Amino acid sequence: MAGLASTEDRGVSAAPLLEGRGVDRRSFLAFCGLMASTLVLPESYVPAIAKALGAAKRPVLVWLEFQDCAGCTESFLRASNPSVGGLVLDTLSINYHETLMAASGKDAEALLKQTVGNERGQYIAVVEGAIPTKDNGVYCTIGGRSALDIAHEVCSNAAAVITVGACAFYGGWPSANPDPTGAVGLGSAMPGTKIVNLPGCPPNGVNITATLVHFLTFGAMPEVDAMGRPLFAYGELIHDSCERRAHFDAGEFVQAWGDDAHRKGWCLYEMGCKGPETHHNCASVRWNDGTNWPVGAGHGCIGCSEPGFFDADTPFYKRLPNVPGFGVQTTADEIGVGIVALTAAAFATHGLISIVRNRLQPEVVDEPTVPVEREEN
């Protein structure tokens, strides 16, 4: 890695505390490089990231869990090396996290109260899980207090607020029809609050870590889109970077799980893939230390980083998303065999026209991508 070698020459070293936990200099630099890449920053920012992570003062973090499955925490714990244990224990001071903390019961709640009182305006608040609003929020109480009450106290006094996962973003699966608890995301529970949203079911642990690293490095949260999602992670459609995109443009689609097209790695659009309407960097960051991602493994995207996906995008294996410009405005249940063939032919024609146009007029710049309009149920 030429870039890594050049960075090492600058004399950057791992934080002493990280070194004490067995994280060597090279691994530390690789991690800083990964963070810069994920944040879409040039390599020149690696020393700044390393310096921020090696700072003596550890920012305090409070992680709340409400109506959730703890999947977002599990995703965070599987972030790339150096281990999240090193990052969590040595860079951040996690004063409260139900899954990770040693304290429990009254001791844990006393620690939360103490943190909010002593670190007012200085700590980072992370919210995982939806917040129930029906019947005074009795469907999720901790220490005799409702999730809504706790969220208001903790988040209104934080230096920065981050939601992780679809549930904290808009309500997720707890808010799916018929939504018996009146589950909502933090933004709906606390309108007007400045929030950075990291949706997904679960979100990639690398993106969670990168957002925290951005705050540690620059003292501010990353730029976000209209839904409060960081542009570095949600700034483009999965469809734009998908490794199967060439097959989409060529009209080459999987028709059945396990068929020859599936084995060849053709496009999963007709199997219900929501990549054309989903904003996320799954295709570039991938999962399990960059090993693979759902579409690469042969499974279509289910759109989990978009609002309302649990209701709007089901059935996951039948509904086709609306893609502007291609004339596909119906669901899979409504498309007959003949129409499917015509749709594939239309996509193939589009791909051919694009190739010819680019060859004959290389100076022409494509128009900006039009935001996808999501289908209303």
Structure, described:
Mean pLDDT is 80; it is low at 1-12 and 325-377. The longest helix has 24 residues, at 337-360. The chain has helices at 2-8, 16-20, 25-38, 46-53, 71-77, 84-90, 105-118, 147-155, 166-170, 186-189, 205-218, 231-234, 238-241, 245-249, 260-263, 282-285, 309-312, 337-360, and strands at residues 60-65, 93-97, 124-128, 131-132, 141-142, 145-146, 160-164, 183-184, 196-198. The termini are far apart. The protein has a five-stranded parallel sheet with strand order 2-1-3-7-9, with helices on both faces. A two-stranded antiparallel sheet has the order 4-8. The protein has 18 helices and nine strands. With 377 residues, it is α/β, with parallel strands linked by helices.
SSE order and pairing:
Elements: H1 2-8, H2 16-20, H3 25-38, H4 46-53, E1 60-65, H5 71-77, H6 84-90, E2 93-97, H7 105-118, E3 124-128, E4 131-132, E5 141-142, E6 145-146, H8 147-155, E7 160-164, H9 166-170, E8 183-184, H10 186-189, E9 196-198, H11 205-218, H12 231-234, H13 238-241, H14 245-249, H15 260-263, H16 282-285, H17 309-312, H18 337-360
Parallel strand pairs: 1-2, 1-3, 3-7, 7-9
Antiparallel strand pairs: 4-8, 5-6
Helix pairs in contact: 3-4, 4-11, 5-11
How would you describe this structure in keywords?
377 residues, 18 helices, Rossmann fold, disordered C terminus, two-stranded antiparallel ribbon, 2 domains, five-stranded parallel sheet, 38% helix, Cytochrome-c3 Hydrogenase, Chain A, domain 2
